[in-house]
């Protein structure tokens, strides 16, 4: 086989990159669990008809076929895949599978059900910077049975703020969470006399991409808005701010437009509560931004997007919102709210912009040298004694000259090399040779000291690989 | 949407099952990292021609197609997927992708390269007990550049023994690792005058399924063996044992058959060294078993299978071996040795046989009660104070009666409920009302005590969910 080349859109990291990603995933998981979210995983596949319920994403789905199977929807394929499912596709997010999991297992779950889920998802989109065909998402969601109190719409972005904030220690830039409320948008648009709410939202969603003038034109062309209505929509979208005064500014605008809407008032009360709570618990992180629309049409309340400060052009690294009717089997409905962190997008930027460094590329804190292949089992015993006390250790691959064994450690960034001592012996001429103690060398400083595998430990900062800000 | 039903072969766990799986994955990862294995992940897809290099597995591969793409191998699909790749399939193991990763990144890796990899894999096989279409594997491998010392064939099964042994605390039954060496088998068969080594191995591999008589028949029918040669092969396959005496028994048999083979001698020396080292470092766990063949034809030295003691009929839960030519680009070859744990198979058995129990289904050690929705922010502050000290906490979903809030905790197995105190106040009649302290209740014993969120902590055993033997 010739030397293989990467597949565009399917990122893979070298061990250093994976170490960074793993530290991020561990930190996210810890915050999620500290907040009581239970971890679950769902299968990678869903019946194609489920994946295509929202027409918008249909072009992104990867469809599966067993190699020996009759192509596309043969009877055997349907029977194989389970009742009613003609074809399987890879999931393109974790929200649709989670809604299905909730419906399928409702009888076994306790509601409100808080879960986190960290898995890969697949989208057949054309790859570009920060946009992949396979990528890792880390999601949190809460769903209720029949109802879900509003306060979860406040809680979830604050959990995300804490989770992403905990990554600062690793060198991740600060984030800004932009929030809006569908009820505000819908109440305002309807109050203006507009009917095609989804259409207006889709236009507003393009604001950052195509600019205000172009959005005004498509609003008129596609949603039947008058130029005045389009201008009012854009004026609403221009409002943003980190405290409850944004609510007053929306009210002033609505009054000027003669809008009276209960839905708008409900939405403004919710948005105000969110911004006020966030200003107390995560000051400066959460900002109301009335242009945030989110393309997916299942959101019904709060919507969220998140930018990495200084890397806004990367797009949102964490999005979500409140949804009321995504998970329903007709008889029961499970409203929810959730956010999804685009871990691969975040990691790819950290690596590309060299924002983060890792202290070594292997877990080992120590390489135990091997004096001769005949004494390898002695080196193995030293390693086992260190590991038994929680110290990551490997044994040198060959009994090469010590200089070469030190180089083995150095190439991997392993800070310590351990030299086994020798037992007491008798030389060929009969002279007794005293036993020598084990020694351990810090190969960064060159300092070498006697050491006992039953008691020695590296400094805490050297025990495991560190992930740190690159400029730290 | 109607209530969805499970897809056969695509297992999903409820939160309790996932907690068990996560504890197992965490324990495996810890052992792998203590031994210096670096974690990597590879993409889920490989070019189809790479996946089909070994003909045997072709029927298991899932092929991908973008929904909007021209079916099967259209020019655009090829251009999209990367140079030379006409179609993509889901990987069916982690060894083939790892070999590709090594070739692709050889210039950036330090050899010998030790990695672990924990990911899902997919095989379109007919599902049955312990055999899934989507499942999690946890692999360790070491590859060298050009050469790889034999001692890694001893080290890797011992790392696995330690990793699987560490699961005993969770309630996982002990394991037995069965080892053989391809050189022994090949040397013996060639010494007998047999030529179709792969054919003989495939027949011997069926011993447990179809029995010795049937294997003797297919050896004669399919590999051209005489009845006497078949009988000798079966006699070799019947040899097993936990110490180096197995080597002597093979030598006696070989001598009786008039076999003289350097390859056999090399294999016996290796197998003897493995069994001897294992008897010292993992007594009773590693057993030489000369019938272990492994179907895949890329193994060239040691081969391994692992059974769960008392659950042998489940099949191997961890298999692997030494391979010399899997990763080669013509100019360079990277020989390796590795083993793969079938995590889903293991977890499905633990759950089906009720071997393991989990102390609760959510991470939370504490539910902070909410006295009234107006005071929710006070409960949030208590929760934040506890979390800041590493205690997993959630806040009750509603300000229901305390009995209902206690039931909320109880349903999830959360051991503690925290009742916020009240600030000093003045009653309506002007009487001063003294402040009351926070209290925390152990809802298992009913014991309730005053507590301060800045100092209180649950017993260490209650801090996180425990996974334990069900009969413990």
Automatic annotation (TrEMBL), chains A, B:
| One GO process term, biological-process aspect | histidyl-tRNA aminoacylation
State one molecular function term (GO): histidine-tRNA ligase activity
Residue positions annotated to bind L-histidine are: 93-95, 123, 137, 141, 294, 298-299
Query: Which keywords accompany this UniProt record?
Result: Aminoacyl-tRNA synthetase, ATP-binding, Cytoplasm, Ligase, Nucleotide-binding, Protein biosynthesis
Indicate the segments forming the Aminoacyl-transfer RNA synthetases class-II family profile domain, all copies. Answer: 15-363
Concerning InterPro entries, the annotation shows:
aa-tRNA-synth_II, aa-tRNA-synth_II/BPL/LPL, Anticodon-bd, Anticodon-bd_dom_sf, His-tRNA-ligase, HisRS-like_core, HisRS/HisZ
Instruction: Give the enzyme's EC designation.
Output: 6.1.1.21
- Which Gene3D superfamilies does the entry mention? Anticodon-binding domain, Bira Bifunctional Protein, Domain 2
Query: What is the reaction catalyzed?
Result: tRNA(His) + L-histidine + ATP = L-histidyl-tRNA(His) + AMP + diphosphate + H(+)
Q: Name one GO cellular component term.
A: cytoplasm
Broadest EC class? ligase
Assembly and oligomerization? Homodimer.
Family statement drawn from the similarity comment of this UniProt entry: Belongs to the class-II aminoacyl-tRNA synthetase family.
Family matches, as NCBIfam families: hisS (TIGR00442)
Protein's recorded name: Histidine--tRNA ligase
Provenance organism: Pengzhenrongella sicca
């Amino acid at each position: 086989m010739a030397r293989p080349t990467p597949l565009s859109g399917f990122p893979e990291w070298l061990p250093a990159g994976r170490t960074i990603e793993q530290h991020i995933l561990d930190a996210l998981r810890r915050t999620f669990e500290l907040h009581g979210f239970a971890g679950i995983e769902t299968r990678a596949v869903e019946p194609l008809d489920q994946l295509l319920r929202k027409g918008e994403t249909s072009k992104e789905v990867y469809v599966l076929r067993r190699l020996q199977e009759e192509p596309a929807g043969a009877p055997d394929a349907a029977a194989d895949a389970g009742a009613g499912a003609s074809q399987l596709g890879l999931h393109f997010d974790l929200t649709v599978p989670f809604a299905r999991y909730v419906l399928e297992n409702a009888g076994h779950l306790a509601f409100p059900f808080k879960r986190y889920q960290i898995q890969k998802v697949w989208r057949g989109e054309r790859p570009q910077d920060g946009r992949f065909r396979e990528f890792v998402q880390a999601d949190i969601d809460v769903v209720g049975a029949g109802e879900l109190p509003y306060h979860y719409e406040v809680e979830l972005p604050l959990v995300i703020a804490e989770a992403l904030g905990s990554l600062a220690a690793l060198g991740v830039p600060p984030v800004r969470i932009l929030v809006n409320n569908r009820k505000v948008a819908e109440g305002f648009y309807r109050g203006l006399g507009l009917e095609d709410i989804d259409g207006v939202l889709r236009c507003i969603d393009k604001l950052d991409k195509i600019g205000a003038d172009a959005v005004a034109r498509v609003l008129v062309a596609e949603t039947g808005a008058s130029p005045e209505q389009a201008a009012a929509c854009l004026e609403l979208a221009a409002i943003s701010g980190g405290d409850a005064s944004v609510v007053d500014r929306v009210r002033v605008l609505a009054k000027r437009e003669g809008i009276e809407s209960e839905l708008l008032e409900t939405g403004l009360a919710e948005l105000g509560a969110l911004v006020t709570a966030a200003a107390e618990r995560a000051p400066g992180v959460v900002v109301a931004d009335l242009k945030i629309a989110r393309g997916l049409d299942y959101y019904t309340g709060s919507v969220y997007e998140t930018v990495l400060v200084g890397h806004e052009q990367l797009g949102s690294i964490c999005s979500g919102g409140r949804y009321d009717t995504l998970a329903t089997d007709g008889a029961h409905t499970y409203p929810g709210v959730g956010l999804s962190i685009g871990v691969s997008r975040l990691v790819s930027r950290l690596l590309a912009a060299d924002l983060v460094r890792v202290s070594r590329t292997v877990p080992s804190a120590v390489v135990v040298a091997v004096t001769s292949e005949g004494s390898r089992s002695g080196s193995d015993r030293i390693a086992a004694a260190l590991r038994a006390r929680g110290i990551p250790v490997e044994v040198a691959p060959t009994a090469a000259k010590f200089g070469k064994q030190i180089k083995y450690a150095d190439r991997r960034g392993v800070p310590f090399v351990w030299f086994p001592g020798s037992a007491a012996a008798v030389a060929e001429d009969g002279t007794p040779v005293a036993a020598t103690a084990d020694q351990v060398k810090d190969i960064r400083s060159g300092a070498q000291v006697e050491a006992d595998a039953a008691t020695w430990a590296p400094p805490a900062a050297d025990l495991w690989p560190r992930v740190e800000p690159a400029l730290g």
